[in-house]
Design brief:
zinc; 6-blade_b-propeller_TolB-like; mainly beta; Neuraminidase; 25 strands; globular; five-stranded mixed β-sheet; four-stranded antiparallel β-sheet
Length: 306
């Protein structure tokens, strides 16, 4: 294991959903528990940081092609301008389900469509030993696709406990999707023209290991990098799902990562404070992993018509 120290001190209770914008060398990321978007300038060593305050919790975010962000709140999809303009696009979780289900991680596919999933809070927050799902119980978590023409598509109607990291191979033929509770990363055949997925199979199975897979990114060689909550780890898996390398961070709750830099070979990693509020070690800080791929990171696509 390669130990890694933070390069930005702890400042987020629950850091998540980092995005790199090469045009101005800024990193954008969430503090979910404080309803805040941080914007960090990486063009100089001063690392100037500014914030956008959101009116409600945001689970994940992506860039919009027209500018600003497309967000998944706990209940729906919102467009946010960098000036703070807040526009609700679609409500996904009805009021009667909001106590037991919420939205979580998201990503934009190569043709500009937003994919996101939900969490079955009743099971995810239960005392059951993970990844146990009671016999006969169908988890309420779903997988969705929201298109730029304002249409919402249910790709998986139930069966997911804690939907998390989503990503695509560089050739756009395979999509990955995480269920943190089940300790699985699935792979799907992906049709980029129709936006449909098929042939779901297990790509990574972490059953019996400490921690849970959270966010996910992919490099140009088809390697999957997954960020392990409650284990202080970043793990790299090859195209066949074989573990290639791990990095240990001085933070117990590792959440997500973003490709950064001119060659897109470094990753900046977000983390959370211990017990979502107490500063422990360097939890809540940002970490940088350098030269972690021989290829390039698969760049994030912006939401909207191409």
């Amino acid at each position: 294991m390669d130990p890694v120290e933070s390069f930005i001190e702890p400042h987020t209770a629950l850091g998540e959903s980092p995005l790199w914008r090469a045009s101005d060398q800024t990193l954008h990321y969430l503090d979910v528990l404080n309803n805040t978007i941080h914007i960090l300038d990486l063009s100089s060593t001063s690392y100037a940081r500014r914030k956008i305050q959101c009116p409600e919790p945001v689970a994940s975010m992506n860039f919009c092609r027209q500018g600003g962000y497309i967000l998944c709140t706990f209940t729906g999809v919102v467009k946010l301008g960098e000036d703070g303009t807040w526009t609700e696009l679609v409500k996904v979780i009805p009021s009667e389900q909001q106590a037991s289900v919420r939205l979580n991680d998201s990503a934009v596919d190569p043709l500009g469509r937003l994919w996101f999933g939900s969490i079955d809070k009743c099971l995810d927050e239960s005392d059951l030993a993970r990844p146990v799902v009671p016999t006969g119980y169908k988890p309420a978590g779903c997988l969705y696709r929201y298109d730029p023409d304002d249409t919402l598509h249910v790709q998986e109607d139930g069966g997911i406990v804690c939907s998390n990291g989503i990503g695509w191979t560089a050739d756009q033929t395979t999509m990955f999707h995480t269920d943190s509770y089940r300790q699985l990363v699935w792979a799907y055949d992906f049709d980029q023209t129709t936006g449909e997925v098929a042939n779901r199979r297990v790509h990574v199975d972490r059953s019996g290991q400490q921690g849970e897979p959270d966010g996910l990114i992919v490099d140009s060689e088809g390697n999957v990098f997954t960020f392990i909550w409650d284990a202080s780890l970043v793990e790299k898996y090859d195209r066949g799902g074989r573990l290639l390398q791990t990095w240990t961070l001085n933070a117990p709750s590792v959440t997500h990562g973003a490709w950064v830099g001119q060659e897109m070979q470094d990753i900046i990693v977000t983390t959370a404070m211990k017990n979502t509020g107490e500063c422990s070690d360097e939890g809540g800080g940002l970490f940088r992993l350098e030269n972690v791929t021989l290829g390039r990171g698969v760049e994030k696509t912006y939401w909207g018509e191409l």
